[in-house]
């Protein structure tokens, strides 16, 4: 199973718990976020402000998220996902650095 397929399966399983999933993202060129820096995005199916268009794809996570109360279409490719944290019960899943991340750290 590829790393992308593994990340997708883990994300879907964590989402199904009903708790929020914090995804630590190191943006890649394919990432569509209002920031180009390391960030944490919170996804969930039962959030106070639901994400009606949350879609989990083979290529990554697509959703319209609110940044400074402005709806913003986003896309996070699996290659950009470094860590997933389930808030309750606590569960942390981390992947080793990708070649992209290592080149950014230089």
Low-confidence stretches: 99-106
Number of beta-strand segments: 7
> Number of folding domains?
1
Strand order of the largest sheet: 2-1-6-7
Report the CATH architecture. Roll
Helix content, binned percent: 10-25%
Q: What is the fold-level CATH name, i.e. the topology?
A: SH3 type barrels
> SSE order, as H and E?
HEEEEEEEH
Shape: globular
The biggest beta sheet is recorded as:
4 strands, antiparallel
CATH domain class: Mainly Beta
Radius of gyration: 13 Å
**SS strand fraction:** 35-45%
Number of helices: 2
Taking all residues together, what is the mean pLDDT?
Answer: 85
Q: Give the class from helix and strand content and strand pairing.
A: alpha+beta
Q: Please name the fourth-level CATH homologous superfamily.
A: SspB-like
First and last CA, distance: 29 Å
Polypeptide structure, described:
The chain is an alpha+beta fold. The chain has a single domain (3-105), classed as Roll (SH3 type barrels). It has two helices and seven strands. It has helices at 3-15, 99-105; strands spanning 21-25, 39-43, 55-56, 60-67, 70-77, 81-86, 91-94. The strands form two sheets. It has a four-stranded antiparallel β-sheet with strand order 2-1-6-7, covered by helices on one side. A three-stranded antiparallel β-sheet has the order 3-4-5. Strand 6 and strand 7 form a beta hairpin. Mean pLDDT is 85; it is low at 99-106.
Task: Give the SSE layout.
Blueprint: H1 3-15, E1 21-25, E2 39-43, E3 55-56, E4 60-67, E5 70-77, E6 81-86, E7 91-94, H2 99-105
Antiparallel strand pairs: 1-2, 1-6, 3-4, 4-5, 6-7
């Amino acid at each position: 199973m590829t790393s992308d397929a593994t990340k997708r399966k883990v994300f879907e399983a964590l989402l199904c718990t009903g708790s929020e999933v914090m995804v630590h993202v190191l943006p890649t060129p394919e990432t569509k976020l209002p920031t180009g820096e390391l960030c944490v995005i919170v996804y969930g199916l039962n959030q106070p402000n639901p994400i009606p268009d949350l879609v989990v794809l083979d290529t990554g996570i697509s959703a319209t998220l609110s940044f400074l109360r402005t709806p913003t279409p986003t896309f996070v490719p699996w290659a950009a996902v470094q860590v997933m944290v389930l808030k309750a019960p606590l569960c942390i899943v981390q992947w080793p650095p990708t070649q992209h991340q290592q080149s950014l750290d230089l």
